Amino acid sequence: MSLTIQMLGTGSAFAKNYYNNNALLDSGEGKLLIDCGTTASLALHQMGVPLPEIDAILITHIHADHVGGLEEFGFQMNILHGRKPVLCIAEPLIHPLWENTLKGGMSQQGMIGKLEDVFEVNVLTPGEPTSLVSGIEVELIPTRHIPGKDSYSLFINDRLFYSADMTFDPDLLNQLVHERGCRSILHEVQLQGAGEVHTTLDELLSLPIQLQERIRLMHYSDDMEQFKEKAGVMSFLEQQRVYNIVELERTEQK
Ligand SMILES: Nc1ccn([C@@H]2O[C@@H]3COP(=O)(O)O[C@H]3[C@H]2O)c(=O)n1
Ligand SMILES: [Zn+2]
Ligand SMILES: [Zn+2]
């Protein structure tokens, strides 16, 4: 079965030339949206993907570039299409997502008082690979991002690692490739400055070349073009281009 990935956007939280770093996975039998940021519905509109075609949404962590579009997605599906969208989410994110992000805009007396009133909630257990839509199995891997905030990277179909926003974790990347058969890595990157809550390009450049060869960069700032020649064998994912994951597994990327 073929699996494709199309980034709705590849931008950092403050990027203006790129949409939010959200992704559409398509197995041919089902579509999974990874994160639903503020720009998600506009990007999906431009890609010609109607919201009801998406079988499930998966959330990595709570920042606006990853969850800021859920209010519109939830309202559109309930009001215009008469059904709740499926929301796959780790248990620790449910309370803060509703109480701190969505409740203000979505609550309605006697009608909407909790996440489950708007979404079909599929509660995920980190560390347990779970089939989310036909042909797409995901394991949540807790990774560090902001102190005190839970965040989960993704290991997809036992072959593709998709980083959430995360600080540099070379041990995890080594383990995934050498012990778990990971063939390609889509990794967030911060191009300039210290990587206090993200992973810097310099940190990724310190990895063994066999790991760098598997990495495609995403979640980058507007000055990405200036860094194309500084990224070594790593290349930048292009937003809205459709990649077959087999194509991502080729080591010669440039
Ligand atoms: N301690 C923090 C917290 C947040 N930030 C910035 O805010 C953005 C929120 O979305 P993000 O994509 O995680 O990127 C974060 C940083 O740019 C940051 O730089 N340092
Ligand atoms: Zn982000
Ligand atoms: Zn974040």
Automatic annotation (TrEMBL):
GO MF term set: hydrolase activity; metal ion binding
Signal peptide: none
Highest taxon, organism lineage: Bacteria
Catalytic activity: 3',5'-cyclic UMP + H2O = UMP + H(+); 3',5'-cyclic CMP + H2O = CMP + H(+)
InterPro entries in the cross-refs: Metallo-B-lactamas, RibonucZ/Hydroxyglut_hydro
Annotated Metallo-beta-lactamase domain residues: 19-219
Physiological role: Counteracts the endogenous Pycsar antiviral defense system. Phosphodiesterase that enables metal-dependent hydrolysis of host cyclic nucleotide Pycsar defense signals such as cCMP and cUMP.
Protein name listed in UniProt: Beta-lactamase
Organism placement in taxonomy: Bacteria, Bacillati, Bacillota, Bacilli, Bacillales
